[in-house]
Fold each of these.
Amino acid sequence: MIWYPYEQMKKMKTPYKIVDAEGVYLYTEDQKLIDSVSSWWSVIHGYKHPELNKALISQAEKFSHVMLGGLTHEAVERLSDKLQSFLPGDLDYCFFSDSGSVAVEVALKMALQYYMNRGEEKRTMILALEHAYHGDTFKTMEAGDDEDYHFVLKAYGSSQHVLHIPTQMEELERAFETWHERLNCFLVEPLLQGAGGMRMYDVSFLKRARELCDQYGVLLIFDEVATGFGRTGNRFVADLVQPDILVLGKALTGGYIGHAVTVANHKVYEGFYDDRPEHALMHGPTFMGNALACSVALKSIELFEEQDYMSKIHRIEEITRREMQDFSDPRVKEVRMMGGCVCIEVREPAILKGYQQFAYERGVFSRPFLSYLYAMVPYIIQEEELVKVLDTMKAWFSQG
Ligand SMILES: *Cc1c(COP(=O)(O)O)cnc(C)c1O
């Protein structure tokens, strides 16, 4: 018996059973669906991509996995070299893990230990954003701020180690002025907060955060598990403002295999590089640097570069803006768009009840949550397919 995610199992409707997938399409026994969710925002090249499949198969013919403890291999070396040149600035040190949540945990552990290694043991606090989502493990739940995902943590009482602020400049400045001696890091989903409701904010907030982090010696961590690889219309938000630690996941492998990476800059790495063994980073997920994941991730990044994915993403944004321009409805609170993400926020969740089946019947797979109806499509989508996704969203409001 499968226990499904984020579901009251007693009330869950039968999930659609996928029997095949290719390009932007998912196939059930009786329907062909454009995947407007990209399998939780990860399948940027679409399904059954010939080159990604080839990368995977040729690695499997050598070996699928060896541990990274005391061993290394070409796939992980080539991927880390590639990330080093592909990522901005001096984000050069790649710590791999098997999921986004774990990669954020690693980033938080790095930030905490960075200061412990320097003897600054009072710096135990994390500054984070309201409505943040950083994963479902315990520390990431604590750093997150979303009742709907994390309410179980209430059992432990309020957190002594995480401070949440809204994306407002005065609050940001006040938090640093008040707490800077206790803070080890400021952790954010930059520009676009995904699971917290596709909330978007301005880059000026991040620029100011960078200045304050420099002023007070606090590490800036970007959780780009969702925003990385073009989703905001930037390759990485880290191209605009440099964090000290960058976390990537989801689209890292083109959605083929769960894998993630925590990338540290020189300053952070040097905080561990020492003769003292107790200054080492004591972490090592069993499947870190998995050879299949690394080989498919490398190919994914090569495709992203060679086939100019940034212009595909800009085209998606252009079409989306054009198609949504005249859309309005009294039940809609706001329509938000950024790069390859569009979200219709409605006034109450009940307004979206039944949408998934409505979309299914029209050949689109969608998974609205709470008051958010959104699309984050694979970047290889054709114009008429994207228009169909957006028309389906709009049609929900025009039918009586
Ligand atoms: C999905 C997500 C995570 C968690 O990644 P998993 O691979 O599901 O553990 C962390 N941070 C952000 C911003 C995410 O969107």
Note: Residues 20-49+308-398 form a domain with the Aspartate Aminotransferase, domain 1 fold (CATH 3.90.1150.10).
Amino acid sequence: MIPLFKVAMSPAAMGRIADVFSSGMMVHGPTVGAFEEALRRVVGNPHLAAVNNGTSALHLAMRLAADPGPGAEPRPAGRDEVLATPLTFEAANFAVLANGLRLRWVDVDPGTFTIDLDDLARKISPATAAISLVHWAGYPVDLDRLSRILDDAEAAHGHRPLVVEDCAHAWGTTLRGRRLGNHGNVCIFSFHALKHLTCGTGGMITLPDQRMHERVQLLRWLGIDRRADRINASYDVPEWGYNFQLNDIAAAMGLANLEIVDENLRRHRANAAYYDEELAGVTGLELTDRAPGHDSSFWLYPLKVRDRDAFMRKMTEAGIAVTRFVRRNDWHSAVREFRVPLPGLDGVYDQMVYIPVGWWLTEEDRAYVAKTIRAGW
Ligand SMILES: *Cc1c(COP(=O)(O)O)cnc(C)c1O
């Protein structure tokens, strides 16, 4: 079977893990610090914090939206909506609920499978506490256009909602040449085993400013300042936090895998470019849109196909793993109260499917995938 996912673990990871073992520092020790420093250099944003998984990073991000923190103006009553799409990993939407906020679904653009910015612009109101978007499959949302929509909303309502970008699929994605994590928003990344960059499990949050960065560093560990004098118990916790720290073994994997991730990313993109050529014009199949300056990480390769179930059967029989990947979240019972018609997603949901595109595909593999699809289903 040609797989959809594979763990990208550098052979150097084992040696770095052995160094952690012999150091005796396992949790938030120097290896986590070194990993964060390396991430700052690569991402280009000094305000970032490593955490134990991407879901934790989402919970921190939504905490910032729900609760402005000690000493800040409280969130006005009734400003409790997060505009979000149901086409994402459940973690993003459940972090909204965990913080006492409500979901207001925004439609999905059937061309890109990402948030429909026209529908978003219609739904922003004084009740909007935050906007939660995902660079789905690695394809970037047009953050420049979003910023103009927010300028208009701010002029109209006197309030600019916090934007949370889920970059879990989008390690290395750039928009008009600028890497994600640098657009003035709160961003989260996942270093789960199957993501481009992996720590086994791990994650990171990037922040737009020093104040949010300092706050997140406290919230990540129960609200306790790590520099406090705990020997004499002379410390105060200004606001309660979580236990979301990364451990040093995970950070050692992350450091090792930073050395291989660029080459892997290059191969995802090369395979995607190959499919773009080979699959264009195939009957019963449509590629997703590609806009200039939108440089996807192609963590997944999305397709729209007619008779999707037959397509999936044919591919599976041919030894090629394919997936629908997620169920649209608005159909889950847990969030049934938020359901609204979403014509864009309704129209394309039955055609969505993903095929293998990763660094592990040989030239023969990808040629076989393209040939199998071109033969029809
Ligand atoms: C992987 C993923 C996350 C985070 O997952 P963790 O396993 O908690 O690291 C968040 N959002 C999306 C879209 C993901 O694919």
Note: The longest helix spans residues 261-279.
